[in-house]
Amino acid sequence: MLFTEENGAYLELIEKNDIYHLFLGGTPFYDGKKPFFKVTLIHPASDIHIRKYSRQTKCRIEETPEIYELYVKPYVDTMRGSRIKWVYNILDHISETENVIYECTDEKNGFIILPDLKWDQKTVSTLYYVAIVHRRDISSLRDLKKEHIPLLLAIKQAALDVIPKKFQEISQDQLKFFIHYHPSYYHFHVHISHIDFDSGDGMDIGRAYLLEDIINQLQTMSDHFSLIQRTFTFFLGKKSDLWLNVFSKIMDTT
Question: What is residue 192's three-state secondary structure?
Fold first, then answer.
């Protein structure tokens, strides 16, 4: 779908998955060049989406294993299924199939690597991929156990092999791997970006955890231990769904 104006300005839909739309556009300069800009459209947007992207006050949260089990996990369970239909569309090869650069179909350690919708797929300095696991029993960082180390190592190695071959101007040591907690959606995935790319609060302390550090922590843990048993400290916006439906209610009772 391409929208054009008489003055040469244009906006082109290049990707659509469920309610998420990615447009690339441009306006002609005096020398005839068209600088690109990117527009991400969420339609129809829910109240959760609107609050997520609104300016808001944040507070520090110390989420203990007990708080997670009693209050957070029930909330996480409600945010799966139809709430993340667009993720299942990718895994089931319904949407964005042409963008997949790597797939492992192994039942336990399988995953797909494809461009993040935020990236224009052109600018190497803002390169941004995401690896989404096929298995549906890992909601977030919390669920990781020692048995998941082969999966995490496979994701890293696949990205190191494939991405520099696709973009020769980037080397393996210019890729960074990180995991968000809390994530923007509760189906386990790993972010892969250019080391120079600053993704804003997506790389903040208390939000982004380096993949290598997580692997190392899992390697040093006993077999019966998992990340569900540790306390996570993070910063949460007071308009976020997680704050309104979970932590604001906890604070009211303490």
Answer: strand
